[in-house]
Amino acid sequence: MTESGLAIETRALTKKYGRITALDGIDLAVEAGSVFGMIGPNGAGKTTAMRLLLDIVRPTSGAASVLGSDPRTGGPALRRQIGFLPGELRLDARITGRALLNHFASISGPVAPGAMNAIADRLGLDLERRVRTLSKGNKQKLGIVQAFMHEPRLLVLDEPTSGLDPIVQQEFLAMVREASASGQTVFLSSHVLSEIQQAADAVAILRSGRVVTVSSVEKLRLTATRHVRAGFVGVTAAELHQALSGIPNLSGLAVVNGDGPTELTATVTGNIDPFVKAIARFTVADLSVEEPDLEESVLKLYGVDTDEASDEK
Question: Each residue of 248-261: pLDDT tens digit?
């Protein structure tokens, strides 16, 4: 079914559990060598989609192709070409991290000499500690090592940065970009829009088991919603209102004069550069910009009520 150049393809892929439809006829096409992200609130169907691609669960209807094979018939030969990090990683072994990874290596296939240590070092993971003594973050690092260490053609990563500190998150994202540059395909899910923006080439937005849209990351950047808060010295509220009145993507502007700095709050949709240039003429005492919010910058963009979306979690 898969055309040349596609690592993953699904057509009308559906999964039902009794009366509950977890995945409702999704169509995806993931280019080989690309980083493809799935985003959506909890319960949107991201994990179900990955489990279907890996033949952990079987579809109710529809079809999928992974690396040119049907997951239902690909068997061990297909699975050895895939590195998988589940969203709910349960590791409670009494053995060391190194021993556990050696066990995984015996299943997944050859691991290049030094590869295991190199990835662990990048992530700051001590492989000599027993698995059951590791924190959630270190167990997540162990899961990342096992997914990457045999250099699979396809990486399937479900919420891969869960539990990682910001520095390790950035190192992980660098690993994703390097994997893509080397020709590996990365298929990852997240509910953090900024994470997808840093790593992915394209993204599918899921809601209630359906693909709302498939978009380039650049398009998402142009529609991201940011909440900004700033404090100014030596400027009045009227002057700020006048300076910002011509910015079309600015909404919810509120300016308060107090005993200290003049405080401004607003919402910027899309390109933040005009706002930054407009306030640059004044003395800025304080400035904060919140990370783009998934529900506001994506779901609301496509006509989804954010309160309704939160009920699906």
Answer: 999 999 999 877 89
Both tokens assigned to 85 = 């990090």
**Which residue ranges does the chain devote to CATH 3.30.70.260?**
225-291
* pLDDT tops 70 at residue 308: no
How confident is the model at residue 297, as a pLDDT? 56
Which CATH number describes the domain made up of 225-291?
A: 3.30.70.260
Which position has the token pair 């698995």? 131
Share of the chain above pLDDT 70, in %: 91
pTM of the full structure: 0.78
Topology of the domain covering 6-221: Rossmann fold (3.40.50)
Residue limits of CATH 3.40.50.300 in the chain: 6-221
